[in-house]
């Protein structure tokens, strides 16, 4: 891919993931990690470099709506890592039919993007993609996708066609995605389409990103 900032220079697309599980690393396996890993593997098929997964429960992210809440807040460094990538894989479990609380916390911190625009009104997320990887034991995937994409798009992220993949188990059932003997064929197909669309659109935006609108003085 040719960089839009440095014409003639080949650059590699990079993706990073957020895992908004409530479980810190080491406590027990995460179904959200399993779904994120499926997306990671498919993105690699499109020559997208993987920059790792940020497990939010492992970090001290303070409540607030600025990019730095001070006094030990780890969000500024996590923000830097996220914005260094071209594609954000936003993984979240469903709790009580909604996005997890860590997912909502990160979206609230990204609200600061709206006041961090450049001279053409573009937020720090402009020209970057976000996709969703959602798991849960009850219905709610469509609602979580809608809530997540509205918030991400509002602060500048671009959502590709077919930008969400999810799995939800049978209602009143305790089976987790991580415990399935094999990944359902429909999930595999959805992940493959998501990765293909995201990589394609990220390359297009890398070559010719949004122009923005000149801001009035």
UniProtKB/TrEMBL annotation:
Pfam families: FMN_red (PF03358). InterPro entries: Flavoprotein-like_sf, FMN_Rdtase-like_dom. Residues 14-162 form the NADPH-dependent FMN reductase-like domain. Gene3D superfamilies: 3.40.50.360. This is NADPH-dependent FMN reductase-like domain-containing protein. It comes from Sphingomonas astaxanthinifaciens DSM 22298.
